[in-house]
């Protein structure tokens, strides 16, 4: 199965777990595909999305998190219509791939966690190695999923931090399997934060 067919299959499954019922207005399709309007990337076409990437795309459109703060786990999806979805994590990238199921990804990039640079440089996920389920803290997920440009660097951290080595498809599958529990965790944390801000006891 090629990459595009794999993504269509797995994101279709993820889509069922992420999207509930919406109103007729919300489900109006884009002119070029079946993506609901509220989920279409709001960016303008960008033929060079990696240039000044964090300046152009500072926040994740799905959770609002600052991608500069979470530069070590950020992802960026460049769809084949030149639209860009910049996310803070693989969790939010999985949401994007589900909701934009009729857009083919031209390229998907992930931060190289093994780099010592700040911000971490992006690497094409087809060349990346993922460390899934280590003791490294996850972003938007209880089970971390970090990308590495160097397979040997990922192996070094696996020996010290645990987890399993895999490719992007392995990590994406894990992201969808974790989606329900991670979404509950995020909702609870945000509700607790709102209650603290409002001075309301839980």
Brief rundown of the structure:
This protein is α+β, with helices and mostly antiparallel strands.
Percent of residues in beta strands: 5-15%
Structural class: alpha+beta
- Strand line-up across the major sheet: 2-1-3-4
Distance between the termini: 48 Å
Give average pLDDT, whole number. Answer: 86
Overall strand count: 7
Cα gyration radius (Å): 17 Å
**Helix-strand topology string:** HHEEHEEEEHEH
Explain how this protein is built.
With 202 residues, the chain is α+β, with helices and mostly antiparallel strands. It has one domain (3-15, 53-198). 36% of the residues lie in helices and 15% in strands. The chain has five helices and seven strands; from the N terminus they run ααββαββββαβα. A four-stranded antiparallel β-sheet has the order 2-1-3-4, covered by helices on one side.
Topology, please?
Blueprint: H1 3-18, H2 53-56, E1 75-79, E2 84-87, H3 90-99, E3 105-111, E4 122-124, E5 129-132, E6 145-148, H4 151-161, E7 164-166, H5 168-198
Antiparallel strand pairs: 1-2, 1-3, 3-4, 5-6, 5-7
Helix pairs in contact: 1-3, 1-5
Key traits:
single chain; about 200 residues; alpha+beta; four-stranded antiparallel β-sheet; three-stranded antiparallel β-sheet; 5 helices; about 35% helix; globular
